[in-house]
# Entry
Amino acid sequence: MMRKGVVIARSAVLAILTILGIALGAPPAMAQTPAEFDALKKQVDALKEGQAALQKELQQIKTFLAARPTAATPPPSEAIVKIDGAPFKGKKDARVTIVDFTDYQ
# Structure
């Protein structure tokens, strides 16, 4: 029984030493100097200006596209098909839509 307690105590001591070694061995965080902070601030300001310019340009494009007249779709062509003498079902003067789908290969 004594061995089990020693093994547990030894494992606990090793775990604590490992945690302390990691915590104490970690390099401290490096603080930025005022010059580095100012340089970063200038970069952020430049990025903000660039973003504002892009947003302005995007708004101009949206305005241009909204003002552009839309292309009118041509009216469908109509044809009169005579069915005299041919068998059919329904009204003789009913409108029928025929869609021609082709694959140009």
Summary: The chain has a mean pLDDT of 80. The CA atoms of residues 20 and 26 lie 10 Å apart. The longest helix spans residues 34-67.
